[in-house]
Amino acid sequence: MGRGRRGGRPPSSEDRTDRCRGRLTYHDLLLCADQCALGLLELGVRRGDAVLVQLPNWSEFVVAALALERIGAVINPVAPIFRERELRSDATVGGPSGGDLRVAVPRA
């Protein structure tokens, strides 16, 4: 992904607004995605990995999706209402055979 204008919009224009978290500019969104991608790389996520992401439709979901795209990993979004049983099923069915299951819990 390049830097700068997105669809004719300057980097300072707003990209996402979420009523709980506030507003993000395109620039802030890209910085957050870069930081998230670095964190995911430190956790061992690599190109081609399938990653379950369980987040509501908040700005953090967009950040996670962009971060995984930067790495080349595949996002597997999971409904926030799913519990451990459904998550284990999704991880078994949708995940690569022999892959690791890693859990990351967002900070409050």
Flag low-confidence runs: 1-6
Question: How many domains in all?
Answer: 1
Provide the helix percentage.
Answer: 25-40%
Taken as a percent bin, the fraction of beta residues is: 15-25%
Structural class: alpha+beta
DSSP summary, beta strand count: 4
CATH fold-level name? Rossmann fold
Instruction: Using the coordinates above, name the CATH class.
Output: Alpha Beta
SSE ordering: EEHEHEH
> Any guess at the CATH architecture?
3-Layer(aba) Sandwich
The side-by-side strand order for the widest beta sheet comes to 1-2
Radius of gyration: 15 Å
Distance between the termini: 30 Å
Principal-axis shape equals: flat
Q: Main beta sheet, described?
A: 2 strands, antiparallel
Average of pLDDT:
76
Count of helical regions: 3
Please explain how this structure is put together.
The structure is a single chain. The protein is α+β, with helices and mostly antiparallel strands and 108 residues long. The chain has one domain (14-94): 3-Layer(aba) Sandwich (Rossmann fold), CATH 3.40.50. Helix content is 38%, strand content 16%. The chain has 3 helices and 4 strands. A two-stranded antiparallel ribbon has the order 1-2. It has a two-stranded parallel sheet with strand order 3-4. β3 (50-53), α2 and β4 form a beta-alpha-beta unit. α1 (26-42) packs across α2. The radius of gyration is 15 Å and the shape is flat. The two termini are 30 Å apart.
